[in-house]
Amino acid sequence: MDVTKAIETRRAYRSLEPFEVTEDLIRDLAYHASLAPSCNNTQPFRYVFVFEKDALEKLFASLPKGNQWVRNAGLLIVVFTSKNFACNMRNGIYAYYDTGLSNAFLILRATELGLVAHPIAGFDEAIVKKAVNLSENYEVVTLIVVAKHAKEISPLLSEKQIKSEHMRPERKRFEEFCYLNKVGE
User: Fold this and answer.
1) Contacts of 61 (CB under 8 A, 6+ apart)
2) End-to-end C-alpha distance for the chain, whole angstroms
3) Less packed terminus of the chain by CB within 10 Å, N or C?
4) What is the pLDDT of residues 119-152, one digit of tens each?
């Protein structure tokens, strides 16, 4: 698969089914995430790959009602960082920027492998930190839900979520988020 196909194929599906998680898969995803550029090569991104049933249950406890569909995943990746990991530019914001780049590489690799890799913001950070033994010095940026895309629509989805399973949500037009040479013209 080329990069364009991976980008165009990637979708945030919520109708999921578990799959066999192997150490080889985890190492493959981590390797590709590690190839992302980062400010001064600081590589501030950190990942906890959670796949054992008991460990997943602890993370599922962090989810609000709207994210119960995550329970069908075989792998949850806790993504965290600290401004202290970043290069000393712009008050540490590059920790978040670099982590986002790394996440994109991981997500595209998962897509290439035929998996859904869906980052979510809906979780209780305190519960996540306790579940994976993460100290207060770190910030959980996202959870990445990894699974196979199920052919059947999950009964855990809302009407809005079901609609987005059938059709990619509309993207902004070029003119709505891009400018040529300066803003406002």
Assistant:
1) 127, 131
2) 37
3) C
4) 999 999 999 999 999 999 999 999 999 999 998 9
